[in-house]
Amino acid sequence: SVTSEKKIKTEGSLSRKTVPALGRLGINGEHVVTVVGGRITSSMTIEGDKTHMVLRAATPDQEHYPLKMDKFMKLYEPNGMEVDELPGATSSGPFMEMQIGQLKAKGFKLYQPRPDNRRYIYKLTPADMEILATRAFISAWGSVQPVREVDYLASPENLKEIYLMPEEVVKAERAWSNGRGSYSKLTKQDSTENFKVYSQEEMLKKYGKMIKDKGKLMVKCGTVLMRQAKLDESVVTCINGRITASVLVTDEESTVVQGGLHELYVLSKAQVEANYEKTVQDIHGTQPVDVMLKSQGFKRYTPKKKPKYFYQVQDVDMKTLPKAFHTSYGNVQMPEAGAYFVMPDTSTCQDNVTPEIYMMPEDKIFCYRPIEKAMTNRVSGTLPVMGHVSTNLYLRTGMWSRFGWAIRSNEAAEARMTGSRSTTASQPEP
Prior knowledge:
Layout: H1 2-11, E1 13-17, E2 21-25, E3 31-36, E4 39-45, E5 52-56, E6 64-68, H2 69-75, E7 81-82, H3 93-105, E8 109-111, E9 118-123, H4 126-131, E10 136-138, E11 144-146, E12 152-156, E13 163-165, H5 167-175, E14 183-185, H6 190-194, E15 197-198, H7 200-214, E16 216-220, E17 224-228, E18 234-239, E19 242-248, E20 255-258, E21 264-267, H8 269-275, E22 276-281, H9 288-295, E23 299-303, E24 308-312, E25 324-326, E26 332-333, E27 340-344, E28 358-360, E29 368-370, H10 371-374, H11 391-397, H12 404-418
Parallel strand pairs: 15-25
Antiparallel strand pairs: 1-9, 1-14, 2-5, 2-8, 3-4, 5-6, 7-8, 9-12, 10-11, 12-13, 16-24, 16-29, 17-20, 17-23, 18-19, 20-21, 22-23, 24-27, 25-26, 27-28
């Protein structure tokens, strides 16, 4: 009822889920029974293929419960991590290795909660139990949930449903990691504007001018590897062990791109047409990496010289920036000091370019050059694609270009090995 929802909001605590969950795809006709503390708290039968995810809780009961696919996508990042690739998975002893193998065989993966995965948690009182004379209520998914005075009620931030959170679940979460819990209680400031997940429109309105005024105009150099995306393919962007994006491909026209640090990400057909030249080159070469990339369908694309503003986030900015924001491709990103805000320069583009703001890790900007230097058409300003040139050339024109001592040492070593006299090469642009 409206009264119950208002009470949960005003007297409950708004919390954000911080701990990942194990999940797998539900099976049509599968009957999922949730048992907590020896009590059946929910029971339902899955109808249809790819309609639900089945999650396993990180509690002593390790109870299973289903979530509709659209609800799951709003609460968790869409791409899970394989359980046998988790840290320590292969060195935790025979018992845990067997458990991990069984979880993987059933299709379980570890899914990270989205930054906007928040809910109200309310502790029931004796007065509430007098109202709930039946000691049970019907959940939004049609299951009868029994209630005890020691239990809690939970509701998403939009208050569209109310469901049971058993006492055992809350206790387990509070006991986890010395009382830190699976849910992080938000302060009044966090529960309002400071933790609001901004839309693209809000980001552009509030930070677009700052990025343009304080940022540096740069263009992408070199070539990029791309292949056709596959329907229902999960693409995780991971840079230096940090997941920066995750996308589930929902069409057959999108493209998978391999970035300068060998990370993968997804671009729509419109984004490829707007940002890359129409001329496509096949991969030439007989090295194992060339053969592998060609077998996967990768080809070489040349980016158009479309300038973008790059602004490096400072520590002082973190005090006023939102905790998270939605990207134009449906992901949620969290600003981080040292990373860059990127925004296309729409004033110089002849084609229709949609204004947007997104984050780019500091590690990835080495393939971009300031516009006045990139436009000089110098060989040193072009970064080749790793795997199609010698490693030495790649390093000289790319990542090592800022370390002259490394280039000079390498040249001296080559001269000694060949017995020839080395001529010092001009230094590439930083």
